[in-house]
Amino acid sequence: MVYCRGCAKEIHETAQMCPHCGYVVTALNLGSGQKNYWMAIVSLVISALSVLNWLTINQWDGSERIGLITFSVASIALSTISLSNKYRGRIMNYWCLGISVITLLAVFGSME
Q1: For residue range 47-106, what is the model confidence (pLDDT) as tens digits?
Q2: Which stretches of the chain are DSSP H helices?
């Protein structure tokens, strides 16, 4: 249940109009996407771990490269899903996409 912004009475979360006052409820008014902020946060944490690995780029071995590729692909997937579904954290998702792409380029560029 959510509250109507017109009369502050409780209405069902899928209601398109308040039965009490007639206020038209839109997805923006219901705060859609607030529950899906976690994708941007998880993507940010994964990207931050990737950035920390940039400091040891000269010492990367095969398993570390595979881990970084996996983390980068996961971050790209989460960010892309979050952006395509218009969840919250849009700017954070763009940053995570950029960091993940740079990490992938660094990993593939450091391969011998």
Answers
A1: 998 888 888 877 888 888 898 899 999 999 989 988 888 888 889 999 999 999 999 998
A2: 27-30, 38-54, 62-84, 90-109
What six digits make up the tokens of 82? 């979050």
Tokens of 47: 């990207």
Cα–Cα distance measured from residue 91 to residue 78, given in angstroms and rounded to the nearest whole number: 13
pTM above 0.70, yes or no: no
Q: Which residue has the tokens 């892309």?
A: 80
Give the span between the Cα atoms of 47 and 24, in whole angstroms: 40
- Where residue 97 falls (left for φ over 0; alpha for ψ -120 to 50; beta otherwise) is alpha
Cα 77 to Cα 1, 21, 27, 49, distances in angstroms: 31, 42, 25, 16
CA atoms within 13 A on the CB side of 104: 14
